[in-house]
Structures are given as structure tokens and as C-alpha cells.
Write a structure and sequence with these properties.
By secondary structure, the protein is an all-alpha fold. It is built from 22 helices and no strands.
Length: 406
């Protein structure tokens, strides 16, 4: 499971890093650095918009042909869309058609990602021993910081090893090739689990089968809405400590990307540890309590932390380490925060839909919003988006008092 989630996040982080240090120059060279990056970030959320549509299609595929077939198509689609970006000519060769193709493949990433939901996270939570649900819930979440570590170090290697001209010509393309290979490995590792008769019986005995999305939405729409807002704090913070700070440092300082990518990888390692700690803490105090406390801490973080990016390397390190510490504690328990509130037969489909909507609302527009706000109103203003996510989580947890309890 961890390998599978790492591959998914690796694909998205490869794109996210390139959207800051590559795409503005390759696809938007006619704009100044700030507006070129904003244009790049305008393409960024297309994957999150396409993801719910992909989920609907792949749920139908699941019901018609089985979970193994669905995962195979989805992971080849995700890897293929990511690898296809590596072959794209830039604006100098294709003009605006290059941007349209980039947008098309970004949509392909999101559409395919909608089919990678396999229900293993829900199955783990449902079969967790008494008092261990928090521990089991955090396991799939480890894939996010691990994917970021691999992507950041890979780009750091190429930016450090190649002259800028060679990196922008061909070096940036290599990580996109790697994504396809990683997806193939992840596919086989996941199929070895998901398509076995033992796991199939577990899925069916727990009613973790793909229900019609329309039926689930009609009967469980309130739970879907609450479930989409419950993890907003961690999902908003997700790109506030991964994509946005890289863009700010790259545009407004003279710092080379290699050093900041290394800082990001180290901070992500702190995030791995914080996710593990979240499992231990959640089993002591309850998942809902931890999510609420984390949202309050993230709200406080939003009120001062962005300014740290403007005071040099020490501030950058402080922002990243603190941000990933909070991200790990909250994100570690954000998966299926209100899954228990779904009727059993709707849990598989409902959990997938709430995850898609939470990523769209919380993370999809965060890089653009944070950069635009900070460029126009100062770094402190970028915390407004993060504060709105924290408020969304607190309201959702209040509205669903039974969410994420042991």
C-alpha cells in the first residue's frame, strides 16, 4: 500500500516541482517570472477538477470488470499521462498548443488518479484491532512525504549536476520518465494484494464494493459534504509547505533551487515521523480530537509563519520544519475522517468521493491563491487560504461529532 501511494504522490510532486522551476520558462517564456508561475499554477488544479470525474468512470469500470482491471487501467493512465509530459515541446516550438497539450496531460493525470482508489485504507481501518485505528489509518498517508522526498531529491540532483540550459532543455524530463516505471512497480505490488481471493472476500464481507455514485450522492450527500470539509486544514497546508514556498523562494530570492529542494526533502522526512506519531497520539486521545487540535494549530501557524519565508535561510528552514510537523500530525489522520458515518454499503464509494472533493477544495487552488495573495498583499496574506481550510475542518468536525472516534 505504501509503495502504491508513494508512486501516486511522486507523479504529482514531479509535476508540482516542475510547475515552479520548469514550466514558467518552457511554456510561458513570454511572461515575467511571477505571471509565468501564476499561469503555470492556473494549469495545476486541472488534475483535481478531473479527479472526481475519473472516480465516477472508474467506479463503473470496477463494477463491470473488477478492481484489478480498474487499477491496471488507472495506473497505466496515470503513468502514461505523466510520462507524456516528458515528450512535450515547449512554447518556442509549438506556441500555445504546447500549453494546451500540457493542460490535456494534466487532466489525464487527475482523471487516472480517480481510479487508483482501492479501498485498502478503509479495509485497514475496519479491521484494525481495538484501540489501534489511528495507527492503521496513518499507514497509507506515509506515501505523500515519501513521494515528495524522492521527487525533490531527483530534481535536486539534476539542478545541481546540469547547467541551467541543459536542465531546461532535457534534464527536467527524466523524472517524468521515472514516474512511469515507478507506476508499473506499484501496479504489480498492489495487484498482489487486491486481487487475491482472501482480500476479495474481506472487501465483500465488509461491503467495500463500488456502489453507484449517483445513489451514494443522493442518499449520503450530507456526509459527503462534511467529509470533504473535515480534512481541509491538512490538505490546504499540504501545498502551502510543498509548492508555494518553492515558488516564493524561486521568484523573489536569489537562492538556487537545489538547496531549497534539499530543505524540502529533509522537512518531508520530519513529516514522515510526524505521521507515525499521529497514529500513536490518535489512539490515545481519539482521531477527532487530534484533527481538531491540529486544525487549531494550523490556524495559528497561518497567522505568522508565512513571513518566515522572507527572512532568509533560517526562516525558510523554520517554516518548512514546523509546517511539515503540523502537516504530518493532521494529514496522518485525515484519510476517511468521517468514513464511519457512511452507511456500510456506501463506504467505499463515499470515501472516494469525499477524498476527491477534499483535495479539490483544499489543495487544488492553494499554490495559485497563496502566490497571488503574497505577491499582491505580502507574505502574511497567503495565510488567509490556510486559515480558511482550518476553519472548514473545525466546522466540519463540529457538525459531525462522531467523526474519527475510536
Amino acid at each position: 500500500m505504501i509503495i502504491g501511494r508513494t508512486s501516486e504522490f511522486f507523479d504529482f510532486f514531479v509535476y508540482a516541482i516542475a510547475s515552479v522551476i520548469v514550466f514558467p520558462k518552457v511554456f510561458f517564456p513570454y511572461l515575467d517570472p511571477l505571471n509565468a508561475t501564476l499561469a503555470s499554477f492556473a494549469v495545476f488544479p486541472l488534475a483535481f477538477i478531473a479527479r472526481p470525474v475519473g472516480s465516477l468512470f472508474f467506479m463503473w469500470l470496477d463494477r463491470a470488470y473488477g478492481r484489478g482491471f480498474k487499477l491496471t487501467v488507472a495506473l497505466f493512465g496515470l503513468g502514461g499521462s505523466t510520462a507524456a509530459i516528458a515528450f512535450l515541446p515547449g512554447y518556442a516550438e509549438l506556441g500555445r498548443n504546447a500549453v494546451l497539450l500540457l493542460a490535456l496531460f494534466r487532466l489525464g493525470q487527475g482523471f487516472a488518479l480517480g481510479g487508483t482508489w482501492d479501498g485498502l485504507a478503509s479495509l485497514l481501518a475496519l479491521n484494525a484491532p481495538e484501540g489501534k485505528r489511528g495507527w492503521y489509518a496513518m499507514i497509507p498517508q506515509l506515501g505523500a512525504p515519501l513521494g515528495l522526498i524522492v521527487a525533490s531529491l531527483l530534481f535536486a540532483f539534476f539542478t545541481a549536476s546540469l547547467p541551467a540550459e541543459d536542465f531546461l532543455s532535457w534534464g527536467w524530463r527524466f523524472p517524468f520518465f521515472v514516474a512511469f516505471a515507478i507506476n508499473v512497480v506499484a501496479l504489480f505490488s498492489r495487484l498482489r494484494i487486491v486481487v487475491t481471493p482472501e482480500f476479495q472476500r474481506l472487501f465483500e464481507s465488509r461491503d467495500l464494493v463500488a456502489e453507484s455514485a449517483l445513489v451514494t450522492i443522493r442518499e449520503q450527500w450530507k456526509t459527503i459534504v462534511i467529509g470533504a470539509f473535515a480534512p481541509l486544514a491538512s490538505f490546504a497546508l499540504f501545498h502551502m509547505v510543498t509548492v508555494f514556498p518553492l515558488s516564493w523562494v524561486f521568484i523573489f530570492t536569489s537562492e538556487e533551487p537545489t538547496r531549497f529542494l534539499t530543505i524540502e526533502a529533509v522537512a518531508a522526512a520530519v513529516g514522515v515521523g510526524a505521521i507515525i506519531v499521529s497514529g500513536l497520539v490518535a489512539d490515545r486521545v481519539g482521531r477527532r480530537t487530534l484533527l481538531g487540535f491540529s486544525a487549531a494549530a494550523i490556524a495559528a501557524f497561518s497567522g505568522f509563519a508565512p513571513q518566515l519565508l522572507g527572512i532568509g535561510i533560517a526562516g525558510e528552514i523554520s517554516f518548512m520544519l514546523t509546517g511539515f510537523l503540523l502537516l504530518g500530525l493532521s494529514f496522518g489522520q485525515s484519510s476517511g475522517a468521517v468514513a464511519d458515518a457512511f452507511e456500510t454499503r456506501h463506504r467505499y464509494t463515499g470515501s472516494a468521493l469525499t477524498s476527491d472533493l477534499a483535495w479539490l477544495l483544499g489543495a487544488g487552488f492553494a499554490p495559485y491563491a497563496a502566490l497571488w495573495l503574497s505577491a499582491n498583499y505580502g507574505l502574511l496574506a497567503s495565510g488567509a487560504y490556510l486559515l480558511s481550510g482550518a476553519a472548514g475542518t473545525i466546522v466540519a468536525l463540529w457538525a459531525n461529532r462522531t467523526a474519527a472516534t475510536n
